[in-house]
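To whoever picks this up:

The nightly regression suite flagged 3-hydroxybutyryl-CoA dehydrogenase as changed. Nothing in the input moved, so I suspect the structure step. Input below, exactly as stored in the fixture:
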Amino acid sequence: MTSVTPPFEGKKGPLTLALIGAGKAGRSLAAAAIRAGHRVVLEDVMPAKLREALDEIPIAGMPGTLETVTTVEDAVREADIAIDFVPDELESKLEIVCMVDRMAPPKTVLCIQTRALNVTDLANCTYRADRCVGLVFDETITVRRGIKTSDETMALVEAFARSCGAAVEVRDEAPITL
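Regenerated output under the current build:
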């Protein structure tokens, strides 16, 4: 397995997060990340959703920061971690995974929010399969390791999830058998 780009080795302190999608789940994670002291760049193509996020997320007095943008390119420009909140269907996921892979710096870890799709298959469509993980947000955050996901990537994503006050469950992706 290849390792994560060196700037992540031993990364401490606030992370810059690109959250793609300002729906309920994206706003909820943004609020938790801001409370944890992280910098959040929240993206949505619908300005009304971004206005809702600004109205809904209490920013005053929080240690983190929130910026809203309307393009994926602006969201991922400086991201340590990019998390998508697009519908859990193959075409939507492929489109956003490929877009983030193209636009984000090499250091960026891509978290694919999916219950139904194979993380390894999606990660293999990128140039950063070692920096891709699956995430599921419930009472706990489930982090799914793809076949090529590096230990450094897993450690970073687990630490981020815990910093937001979440219980974390780690799973290896089950191989598909026919």
